[in-house]
């Protein structure tokens, strides 16, 4: 209930400031890893990237109509997939189902109006919520599968993260946008309860379809 109230408190003021709303499902490839929080070491990752399919939902609130001009926007994103990392020995890996939420700022610009294409850059903050049940899968001890670890990871149930993205929107139909985007993210809070400092990192290649609601257009029709 508290989460619903919090989301409502954020969403409706943003909606009131917006000229265009877009929302729809997302689908993509997700490559994750568990890295040492010290990026200055030679090999921050404790293993190799774990690949999965991610699915989610995206809502974008544009301050102006992005089909007519460059504009800023607030983005609300959700995705679900399995985070983790795999050992050099393929039968050993960490994998934990994750619900991820983030809010960001997008700049949409460089439009080609004749071809109905526009590019965008995005940055935001978010939270990952982990399922901490049965997250190690393997035939050997964790410290044998991942020699970089001094002891097995005792996974926390959440982490905070930074998200960066870039992509292209294609106005394929009158009221629909198709998009493709590349996202990168790194956590900045420790995911383990024991010694050491480890974070999740990931790359995503996403696509999806969003429905367009233009509030200004509706207002002008009412005035007429």
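Q: What amino acid sequence fits the structure above?
A:
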């Amino acid at each position: 209930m508290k989460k619903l109230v919090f989301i409502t408190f954020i969403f409706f003021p943003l909606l009131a400031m917006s000229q265009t709303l877009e929302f729809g499902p997302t689908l993509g490839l997700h490559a994750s890893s568990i890295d040492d929080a010290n990026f200055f070491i030679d090999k921050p990752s404790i293993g190799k990237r774990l690949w999965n399919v991610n699915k989610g939902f995206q809502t974008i609130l544009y301050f102006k109509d992005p089909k007519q001009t460059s504009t800023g926007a607030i983005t609300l994103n959700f995705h679900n997939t399995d985070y983790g990392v795999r050992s050099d020995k393929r039968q050993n890996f960490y994998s934990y189902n994750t619900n991820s939420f983030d809010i960001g700022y997008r700049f949409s610009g460089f439009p080609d109006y004749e071809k109905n294409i526009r590019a965008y850059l995005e940055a935001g903050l978010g939270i990952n919520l982990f399922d901490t049940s049965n997250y190690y899968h393997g035939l050997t001890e964790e410290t044998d599968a991942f020699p970089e670890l001094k002891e097995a990871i005792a996974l926390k149930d959440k982490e905070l993260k930074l998200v960066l993205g870039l992509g292209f929107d294609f106005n394929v139909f009158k009221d629909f946008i198709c998009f493709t985007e590349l996202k990168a993210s790194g956590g900045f809070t420790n995911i383990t309860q024991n010694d050491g400092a480890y974070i999740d990192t990931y790359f995503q290649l996403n696509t999806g379809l969003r429905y367009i609601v233009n509030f200004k257009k509706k207002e002008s029709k009412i005035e007429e």
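Q: And what stands out in the fold?
A: Helices lie at 2-17, 142-145, 215-223.
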